[in-house]
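Record type: monomer structure entry
Structure origin: computed from sequence
Chain ID: A
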Amino acid sequence: VDGMLCHCGRYGCLETIAGKQGILIEAQHSLPSLTTITQVIKAAQEGNPDCIYALERAGNYLGFALAGLVNSLNPCLIVLDGSTIQAGDLILQPLHTTLEAHSLQAPFTHTRVTLAEQSGLAMPFGGVATVLDAVFQVT
């Protein structure tokens, strides 16, 4: 409804805030010279408060969005992937705090959130794991 225009043509999508372009745009308010998410992460790691805010904001919104997933699907593991995982705890800490605040206690206690070890592989590995789980599930 509100928010920036997303590349999909709609307004206010999660990607406009928590995706690399949304984070970059937020950080560019104070540092217009930043041109990549890697630069934003580096500036945040060096203590730039606006870059830290942009990454924490993304983590908070991701945590809120994932709370709906946790409450409805009760996953045991959520693996985050993409270029923003380079930020590590700068995104993961606020994400976890918000996720805990907006999740039901029972499913939250059984859900672990982690960063992908190899960027770009979380989705295919998750798909394979889901298929294997369905094929070998004992009924």
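Annotation 1: The chain has a mean pLDDT of 87.
Annotation 2: The radius of gyration is 16 Å.
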